[in-house]
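agent> fetching stored inputs for the zinc ion docking request
agent> found them:
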Amino acid sequence: MPFCPSCRSEFQAGTAQCADCNVDLVDNQPEAEATASSDMVDVYVCYEAQQVERVLDVLRSAGLETLLRDRASQAFPTNVGHTAEKLVAVSGNDTGRARELLQAAIDDGVIPSDGEILKG
Ligand SMILES: [Zn+2]
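agent> prediction call returned; pasting tokens
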């Protein structure tokens, strides 16, 4: 079911735009196991759930499709230290724009700078 990346309202299938926000709707994807993930490119990694939510907000409010996935750390398979990296991915066509948005958000202090923008 498509939803608006700005206000997150859900719409009937076949609807292309949110009438309130005038932005293109994106497909609602199940967390972590989206089949379309092969088209998604990781652009940001961090270890804080709160932080990653702000990162997603920055990208979604710009109308980008985002995917959040956890990657268990290879180095720490047990519950020692951080156990999962939180990877933020966007559509392959949006990677350049996403990196610009994230860098601007870090420069503006919107998101902390202790995450890492992945240069691909
Ligand atoms: Zn909307």
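agent> quick read of the result: Residues 1-29 form one domain.
agent> awaiting further instructions
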